[in-house]
Amino acid sequence: MASRINLDRILKILEATSSLEGIQDVIEKVRDLFEIDHIVYHWVDSAGDQYGCGTYSDEWVQRYLEQEYLRTDPVITGCYQRFHPVDWKRLDWSSKPARVFLADALKHGVGNQGYSIPIRGPNGQFALFSISHNCDDLVWEKFTEKHSRDLILLAHYFNRKALDFEPDRAPEQSRTLSPREVDVMTLLAMGYSRAQVAETLSISEHTLRVYIESARFKLGALNTTHAIARAMSRGLIVV
Asked: Mind listing the UniProt keywords for this protein, alphabetically (predicted)?
């Protein structure tokens, strides 16, 4: 599975990408790195224009468009209402259109497992970074537990790179984290629990919460995991 060295190399390649077409090449490398069946990134900018890249077959992409599955796909409808990553099993597949869509997706090799990360940009952009694979529930659960942090980081890197190519986009303002905020976010990114972070830095958990909330505000993050991803993608912390 993915190693930190290879992941860092992929992030550097993505950072150096100079076109939307180049993102497609990188996403194929990421799929191979994680040894999964498919990865898809779909971005809608503030003007409503769309861009997508991924590893689904051309046949499935065409089928998806022809059947207008965008209207009934539980991954799209479910993630648009969420801010946090979600396993596809937790989405609502009970309706007849959803079941028809699922059967068709399985027939076209999408995979019986999936995990999606919704991302919202500063000016109304919405993006979705999804991975899918064919395996049993236990294997998938272990995989997502092991790689969720890296996947969230990758999702935000892909989104930031796609936003670089959005016409007339204003530069994103960045605020510097304090040294103690950097310490807190770094330890959290390394997998420390809040209690362990507080103990390591010799501060109370109340003080720790203050640092976390301050970092989240500066980074414009929706939650702590989002803040870690943003801090890492901007080079504010290194793990």
From this structure: DNA-binding, Transcription, Transcription regulation
DSSP letter string over 106-157?
A: HHTT--SEEEEEEEE-TTS-EEEEEEEE---HHHHHHHHHHHHHHHHHHHHH
Quick check: 48 pLDDT over 80? no
pTM: 0.71
Burial 169-200 (b: 16+ CB within 10 A, else e): eeeeeeeebeebbbbbbbbbbeebeeeebbee
Whole-number Å distance between alpha carbons of 117 and 79: 8
Domains of the chain: 4-164 (3.30.450.80), 179-233 (1.10.10.10)
